[in-house]
Amino acid sequence: MRIRTLAFGIRHRAFGLGLALGLALLVAASPVQAADRLLVMPLENVRRESSIYWLSEASAILLAEDLTALGSSALTRTERVRAFEELHLPVSAALSRATIIKVGQLAGATQVVVGTIERDNQDLIVRARMVRLDSGTLNPEVTERGALNDLFALFERVARRLVGASAQAPAPASRPPLDAFESYVKGLLAESPEAQEKHLERAVELQKAYDSAWLALWEVRTEVERHEEALAAARAVPEGSKMSRRARFFAALSELELGRQAAAFDGFKALDSERAAPELKNNLGVVQLRRGPAHESGRATWFFTQAAEADPEDPDYCFNLGYAYALENDFPAAIYWLREVVRRDPSDGDAHFVLGVVLQARGSAVEAARERELARQLSSEYGQQTGSDVPRGLERIKETIDLRRSDRVESAIATPAARDQRELAAFHLDRGRRFFTERRDREALDELRRSIYLSPYQAEAHLLVGQIHLRNGRVREAVDALTISIWIEQTPGAQTLLEDARRQLTAAGSPK
Questions:
Q1: To pair with 303 at 20 to 30 A between CA atoms, which of 47, 349, 470, 479?
Q2: DSSP of 176-223, one letter per residue?
Q3: Rg of the chain over CA atoms, in angstroms?
Q4: What would the pLDDT profile of 7-65 be if each residue is shown by its tens digit?
C-alpha cells in the first residue's frame, strides 16, 4: 500500500503552472460568509530565520483550526498538502502571489489567507490578510505582536480579527503544550522518516493524549512498513476522541497490511455500519479479493459496486470493480468497467494492461495488443509482460476516510487539470510535429513521448514516432509505433508506411 509521506517532497514535471492572472487587487473589507472556503497558506518567514522555520507551517495549521472554530470553513492541512501535490508544487516553498491565487481557485477556495511572520527579539510579529478570489479584492492587513510562548493566543487574535469575530465567539479547541506542538510540526516537516519519527515520538512523549501526533506517527511507520508499530500508534487514540474514526480506519489498514484479513474486515465493517462511506466499501472489497472468490462474507465485486455507486467519479472504484470481474473471468463486465477507467484517465497503465489481457481472453487480439502496447509505453513495469493471466496485487486501497470525491480538493482540481492535460498534450504534439518537419528527431521524439504519456490515444503522435524510427533505421520500433497508430485510427498513409516497414523487416530476415 502506498501511503503519502508527511514531508510530501517536491515533484517536478516538464511543465509549470505559468500562471499570469493579472488580478487587480483592490483594497476593500469583505467579511467571511458562512459558505466561504478558505485556503490558509503558510506565512512567509521574511528574514529566513532558521530558528523559527517551523513557524511558517505552524501558522497555517493554527490559523486554519482557529478560523474553522470561529465558524469559517478552512481547508485542513491534509487537504492543503494534497492540493499542492496534485498541482506538483512544493509544499513549503514561497510562491508568487499569482500562483497562490491560482492554487486557491483550483482547490475550490473562495478566499486565501496570506501573510508574513518575523521575530523581533523575544516577540513574533504576524501580518495576515485575506484575498477574495471571486472579486479579486484584498482585505486590509491584520498585524499582531506577541511572545513566542504565547503563540496560540497570538494566532487566535489574528484569526478573530481576520473574520471580525467578537470576543463572545467560540474559542478554538484546547491546545497541546507548546513544546509538544513544536515537535509535532517539525515531525511533519522533517525530510526523512527517521527524523519524522524522532520528532513525533517526542511530541507524544510530552503529551500522551496528542491524537494528531499519534496519527502522524502511524503514517510514518506505515511508510517504512513497520505495521505492528503503526497499529500501536493508531490504537493509542482513545475511542472518545474526535479522531477516533480515523484512527480505527488506520488500524484496519494496518491489519490488512499484516495479512489479518478477518480483523481488517471487522474493522472496516464496524466503521461502515456506524456511518457508510465509499472508502470503506472499497476496502472491504479489497479484503474479500485477497481472501479469494465467493467468500462467505460477500463477493469483492458487490462491495466495489457499492463504492462505485456511492462515488461514481472516482476511477479507483471503477478499476477495482473491473479488475475483480477480470479475476472472476467475467470478461464483458471487466471490459466495461476498465474502459470507464481509461476514459477517465487515459494514462492509467494498469488499466490498459488488464484491459489488454481481458480483450485477449475474449479473442479481440488487435485491441488487446494495442492496450498492452499502451501500457508498456505508460509504465516500464509492463515492458516484458507477455503472459495471458490477469496479474495479482493491483487492487487499490483507499488510505483516507470520509472524503467523498465531490468534497475533496482533487474534485475541484480534476476538471481544470484534465483540460490542462489535454491542452498540454496538444502543445507537445505541435512541438513534436514542428521538430519532425525540421528533422530534429531527438527533440521531436522527446516531445511526442510527452504528448503520448498525457494522451495515449493520439494516432498522429504514434504515426510521427513511427516515421522518425523508420528514417533512422529502427525498423522494429517503427513497426510497433505504426501498428498502434493504425489501431487507433486507420489512415492510408500509416498503412503504406507500415507495409513498407514490414517489407524491410522481411528483407533483413527479421520476424514479422
A1: 349
A2: --HHHHHHHHHHHH-SSHHHHHHHHHHHHHH-TT-HHHHHHHHHHHHH
A3: 26
A4: 333 223 332 333 322 323 223 334 444 457 899 999 999 888 888 999 999 999 999 99
d(CA 111, CA 289): 43
Which of 393-406 are b and which e, b meaning 16 or more Cβ less than 10 Å from the residue's Cβ?
A: ebbbbbbebebebe
pLDDT digit string, tens, across residues 343-370: 878 888 999 999 999 999 988 888 888 8
Contact 485/466 with Cβ under 8 angstroms?
A: yes
Confirm if 245 and 402 have CB atoms less than 8 A apart: yes
Give residue for cell 467578537.
166
DSSP state string for 350-374: HHHHHHHHHHHHTT-HHHHHHHHHH
Going by C-alpha positions, the residue among 205, 206, 201 that lies closest to residue 187 is 201
Once rounded to an integer, what is the mean pLDDT over residues 220-226? 96
Annotate 61-116 with three-state secondary structure.
HHHHHHHHHCCCEECCHHHHHHHHHHCCCCCCCCCCHHHHHHHHHHCCCCEEEEEE
Nearest to 471 by CA among 509, 434, 445: 445
The C-alpha atoms of residue 224 and residue 257 are separated, in whole angstroms, by: 12
Instruction: Tell the burial category of 361 from Cβ atoms under 10 Å away from its Cβ (0-12, 13-18, 19+).
Output: middle
